[in-house]
Sequence to fold (401 residues):
Amino acid sequence: MALLKKKHKEFLGEVAANVMSDATLGKGSTAPTKLPNAKSGAGPLKLGLAVIAVVAVLAVAAFAFYGKGNSPGATSSSVPTSMPTTTAATSISESTTIATTSIAVQQQPNVTGNYLMTFLACTGKSCFNPQYHTTYLAQSNDGSNWTLVPGFKPYAGSVPDLVRRGGTLYLYNPGTVVIYNISTSAQSAPIPVTLEYPNGTVSSDGFVDPSPTLSNGTIVLFYLPGIPGQDPAQCPTGQSSCTKSIMSATEASGSNGTVFVVDPGVRVSVSITSPGTASDPAVFKTPTGYALYLSEGQSVVAFSSATLQGSYTPIPGLPEGVLVQQGTGGVPSGRYNPQTGQYWTYVSHSPLGGTGVIDLAITSDISSQIPSAAFSTVVSGCDFAALGCNYSVESPGIWPK
Fold:
């Protein structure tokens, strides 16, 4: 589909959870520590005054309790388990304090799934223009059944991918990042991302097709360098063949995912002939190091490296590195599941004349080609009421990877 060949490839939101501080509902009053004794000859008048004094003390205590919003018979945890008691038949405590338990109002996070996926959605002719693509965030407990994250605000953006660091999600699109706080659901607007060379010079080309991952808590961004004014996945105008290189850059300390310094060398280079394309890298960890998927139209080629920022070479056993054959799907994402020892390969599949969907194949290895029959659709526009069956969904980005 032309969409896969023509992609031009925000105020950090941190809102604290609402917490109510401890509160003291009220205090009782003091009273004589000993009541007049009726047998001492004080007479009925003194006895009556003593009774009035006791009643007054209890009334003050009751007012302090009920006057602060409590009601008889309440069962809230803020209600004391007992009223003040007298220390003897003729005495009460000098001071009675009615206290409450602290009440903390905590917002439940909307992100609860074991797995997260970003993807783009579009409809009709708008799919041919990345400016009309919208980024969504979905979650799943099994990697196959997906629902949209409640409260997440879809935004204009193409070819998304994400990384999670602690309680924060970083959703990358070409040139920008959206930062999402899982605890509070606070979401930034798209924030420009700066790409610098080690000498401090800012890259004028920028990046497209971002694929972020973590290395010891630091974000490492794989990307295809941009070409201003044309599709960076294709050869420059007038060239019948060319080489496409996938680069990486490391997050600058203290930048919170908004500034990256280009790493030395290239991660992988591939030769293409016009009108062929090479784009959409997807890096993920494997038992022997790292794997890197690359989209060539509606197919996927696969590479591996012992180190994240090393040189990637075609995975042995794959003819010309092709993992997913042409026509099956491209713009991939992948992960290795250490619990099952299986590989999850997601692709964007755009049938001729049909709407785009996201397919998944689960295999025991990625050293042999994945047949088309191994893929099944796991995400489509029909799955979400916010979209609909006329929407294409493409460009998955999976986490963890």
Remarks:
- Confidence is low (pLDDT under 50) at residues 1-103.
- The chain has two domains: 2-16+108-399, 24-99.
